[in-house]
Amino acid sequence: MRGRRLSGWVAAVPMAALALATVYPLVFTANVAMKTRREYVLDRFAPLNSPHWENIGTAWSDAGMARYFANSLLVVTVSVALLLLLGSMAGFALSRLRFRGSRMIFLGCLAALFVPFQVIMVPLARVMADTGLIDTYPGLILAYVAQWLPFTVFLMTSHYTTIPMEIVDAARIDGNTVYGVYRRVMIPLGRPALLSVGILDTLFCWNDVLIALLTMNSADHRTLMVGVTSLRGQYSDDIPTFASGVLIAAVPVLMIYLFLQRQIADGVTAGSTKG
């Protein structure tokens, strides 16, 4: 019994320290965001006496966070929709359709997962500049789709591989075309994987800074995370407003993690077992 308690404490103490290290920055940011500039200068670590919500309003309207939020919402929504559509179709084809080269295509998608974006960022920027896609929403959306499509295809292929081939054969015998099998069978059976992959793709696109910073030059087209980085220079003497912008950017991601933890874990482990 003592051994079990001791082992429990050995595991609990590091995990509690890790949880504290993760939560404290968010609590500190929220505490700073609700202070006045005078309160922050006097003691940045002291708990606030009364919240000053006007900092959130200043960051949202005057600092342009509302525009950045709308830009991110548009780009992420369209990007994730395309990723799920293309990824699910490719996953179905690679897992359940027999054609020459399917294995090589899957291995190519798998190999693309190991290529850092920094390796291809210069050629990507040149191609986008030559095609007139720099500083445009379609350009950023295509960049996101190209970056995260191999990951989406890999996870969807892994999920569809677990579906018995007999189900597909039965649907074909019933008179369904390949598209009918995909729409009537694979999409309903793939909904859990689509939800998990969609959440992960949303987090990837929403938190991105490098791709958006590379492809979006004008302030009107900035995404939320790029807009937050620009606030540091604009409000270097007004840290509470800057902290309010960081808080605005963090809240959507925090809500996703709080309410969709199981789906995120399922998406991470989707390709860990072989069907």
Radius of gyration: 23 Å
Q: Which consecutive residue ranges, at least 5 long each, have pLDDT under 50?
A: none
Helix content: over 70%
For the largest beta-sheet, the strand count, sense and barrel status come to: none
Oligomer state of the chains in this structure: single chain
CATH class of the domain at 78-268: Mainly Alpha
CATH topology (fold) name of the domain at 78-268: MetI-like fold
Q: What number is the mean pLDDT?
A: 85
Count of extended strands: 0
Pfam family, one: BPD_transp_1
Main location: membrane
Membrane topology: Multi-pass membrane protein
Family: Belongs to the binding-protein-dependent transport system permease family.
Description:
The chain has 14 helices and no strands. With 275 residues, the protein is an all-alpha fold. It has a domain at 78-268: MetI-like fold, CATH 1.10.3720.10. Helix 4 (65-96) packs antiparallel against helix 12 (224-234) and helix 8 (165-173) crosses helix 9 (178-189). The longest helix has 32 residues, at 2-33. The relative contact order is 0.14.
In brief, what are we looking at here?
It is found in: Cell membrane. Helix content is 77%, strand content 0%. The protein is an all-alpha fold and 275 residues long.
